Amino acid sequence: MKRRPRRPVVAIIGGGFTGAAVAANLARNTTGQAVDIIVFEPRARLGAGLAYDTSDPAHRINVPAARMSLIPDEPDDFLHWLAAEGEPRDDQDALAEDGNLYPRRAVFGRYVGDFIAPFLRSGQVQHCHERVAQIVRTGEQWRIEADGGTDILADIAIVATTHPAPCAPRHIAKALAGHPRFVADSTLSGALSVIRGEDRVLLIGNGLTSADVIASLRRNGHRGPITALSRRGLRSRGHATTAQEPFGDFVTNPSRTARSLLRRIRQAVQEAPTAGHSWHAVFDALRAQGGEIWGALSIPERKRLVRHLRSYWDVHRFRVAPQIDAVIAQGLDRGDVRVLGGSVKEIARAGETITAEVRHRHTGKCEQMTFDACVVTTGPAHTAVLRSQGWLADMADAGHLQLDGVGLGLACDEQSRAADRDGKSDNALFIAGPLARGTFGELMGLPQVNDHAIFVAHQVAQRLASQSRSRPAVQIA
Fold first, then answer.
1. Residues of the chain whose pLDDT is less than 70?
2. What's the angle, vertex CA 395, arms to CA 399 and CA 406, rounded to 5?
3. Per-residue CA distances from 433 to 111, 125, 295, 450 (Å)
4. Are residues 204 and 287 in contact, defined by beta-carbon separation less than 8 angstroms?
5. Per-position b or e across 168-196, b if 16+ CB within 10 A of its CB
6. φ and ψ at 87, to 5 degrees?
7. Which of 183, 175, 179 is nearest to 202 (CA)?
8. What is the rounded CA–CA span in Å between residue 420 and residue 428?
9. pTM above 0.90, yes or no
10. CA distances from 353 to 175, 198, 205, 348, 369 (A)
11. Is 67 helix (H, G, I), strand (E, B) or coil?
């Protein structure tokens, strides 16, 4: 009678960019070890997810291709892949005036797919084309049931799901329910096809999603006026026209309050021109030092930062590709794109006509406006994540998950292990990607998400190595 160790199972729920990056790096970290890595993702391929599973040619990566490598030690990996694939093909606008490439997002999705493909072929990673229906704790393991009949026991589960869908303000959703051109979630494939060429369009929200929608509408021949409304009337900025090194030190004697941090940022922005930099370089420094900056703040100060300054951070940090920025700038110049700061006080419909009373932020005056279509572009509803999918709600009800203290995602510790209802870290449950923002801070830009995926893969690999030393053997004939 021979004895061999039982193969551990790692289940990754979500196979978009985060899940694929975790799986590929975990496979690299466990090469030669007996471990089953199973990714639950209903889409046909891994690595695309919500962001890169798009056929819309107007959708481009928002970061220059030179900064999109999945291998930190090989910063030109994506550029080399583009050259080898003959990309970007049939896309004469991909090269921006600043000399950087901004390929279409679908192209980057293919790159991620090719990155994980060798591990799928070797069997180190398995793709389960099903949607998770239930996750239940069974002793030290997780029982995972999927909608296609798959039923497995996993030693470690990694939550790598996407953001919750946008959530329209309640009074708007109620008033426009059933309207043929009310688009509650513009991220769904074909969602904008209901909008006609001359329609007057109201966008609720004015961040990256709004920019994508404007670019998509214009590319598809839409000619009608577009009004983008957000509370502060800020729109996502473009990139610097020349390459710059990050400027500013925010980690030496780090700020302990949001107010102190804001003062330091303003001072750096004022000093940047003297050093030959623009504000972009300051925010690049903030992005690079984001984890340490965030870690120095208490939970109340993090909440204060999010409540008062998040919208300003978002529009400066998450920049649009130059091609998309140009479309919006042209619309603003012509007057057929309008960006407003304010709120919808009243909204109603008369047949298919939408009437809205908009209260302007700075003047307090109200303006009566008429539209033919309304698109919600507010971005993910982060605080609704635990109710966005049934299995997440069940895990929360069972006490295995809770929202983080800042309201950005799921609670976890500094090893990215999930924190249960009592705040205790779970060695068999990890949170990967943007849903871990409450603990790690800046986890929305792809380079930071990739770094975090590598970090989580390392933590899980270490946990597997520890388990293997204590795992009971299985008898075989």
1. 1-5, 381-383, 468-477
2. 70
3. 19, 19, 17, 8
4. no
5. beeebbebbeebebbbbebbeeebbeebe
6. -105, 155
7. 183
8. 12
9. no
10. 12, 13, 20, 8, 11
11. helix
